[in-house]
Every structure is written in structure tokens, then in C-alpha cells.
Amino acid sequence: MAEQSQDVVELILDDHRRMEELFRRMRSVEEDRAQALHEFSALLIAHGEAEESEVYPALKRYKHIDDDEVEHGVEEHTEGNEALLALLQVGKVGSADWDDKLEKLVEAVAHHTDEEERTILNGARENVADSRRAELGAAFWRAREEHLKADCGSIDHVRKVVEAS
């Protein structure tokens, strides 16, 4: 895939919208729910890892972007990853337990994306130059793609991510 060179805010927002679409697919009995979960798992882990390695540390250097919000974003990644692992560990897709764990995952991720969009990303829009957002976008995209190529959404890898946090 060709390397992206876009605004990091737009790339992150694109991933958030993709996650919402995958949630819709995971909720629908007319969709391949297991496949949607597989895609979601890889995207959530790659996205979060790339944000934490490439984006969050850079944004903490800006005085008008709240460091506490950035740290809170990392905590919310952990909560989302834990909810993802719980869902991945459910044996039967579409069972009552699966649906319950899915809703907990949706709640954790939707809460995080909403807060991140209102605080961290708006802060980046207002305080980070377009050229720097493009540089961060390229770094985010590279890291994200590396994680995706490494099968980061597998249950074993998700478990390692959760255990490391």
C-alpha cells in the first residue's frame, strides 16, 4: 500500500469512522460478524499502538494540548483493549455473552473516540501546524501499517498488549 501523507487528525478520524462501521457489522445478523471482529481487532490495536508511539508523545510537547488528556487517552486504550480481549475470548459469535461483551467494547471505544475527538484532536487542529500534522500523519500511518502486517489483532497479540499495559 502506498504511504499516506495526510493530516494525522483526518487519518485518526477515518479510523474512528471505520470502527463505527465495523461495530454496525458486528451487531448485524446479516453480516459475517466474526470477520468484522477480526478486522476490528486488527484496526483497534494498530490504531492505538500507532497513536501511542507516534502521535501522543509529539502532541504532549504542545502547551495548549492537555497532557492529562493525552495520558487519559492511553488509559482508555487499555480499557478498550481489555474489552476487546474479553470479546475475542467468547466462544460463540452471536451468543448472549458475545453480544454483552460487544456492547461493553462499543461503550469503551465510543467513549474514548468521543473524548479524543473533542479534546486531543481539536487541540491538534488549533495548535499544530498543517505541515507538522502531515508529518505526524505519515509517521502514524507507517506505524499503523507495520502493526497490521504483523497480525496485531490476533487473540495472542491482543493478550500480550493487555498484559503489557
- Total helix count? 6
- Please give the largest β-sheet: none
The Rg value, from CA coordinates, equals 16 Å
Which geometry do the CA atoms define? elongated
Structural class: mainly alpha
Q: How many angstroms does the end-to-end distance come to? A: 30 Å
Number of strands: 0
Low-confidence stretches: none
Q: How much strand content do the residues show?
A: under 5%
What proportion of the residues is helical, as a percent range? over 70%
Order of H and E elements: HHHHHH
Average predicted local confidence, pLDDT: 93
Outline of the structure:
The protein has 165 residues and is mainly alpha-helical. It has helices at residues 8-27, 33-59, 67-88, 96-127, 130-149, 155-164.
List keywords for this structure.
165 residues, mainly alpha, 6 helices, 79% helix, 0% strand
Chart the SSEs and their pairings.
Blueprint: H1 8-27, H2 33-59, H3 67-88, H4 96-127, H5 130-149, H6 155-164
Describe the structure in your own words:
It contains six helices and no strands. The chain is mainly alpha-helical. Helix 3 runs antiparallel to helix 4. The radius of gyration is 16 Å and the shape is elongated. The mean pLDDT is 93.
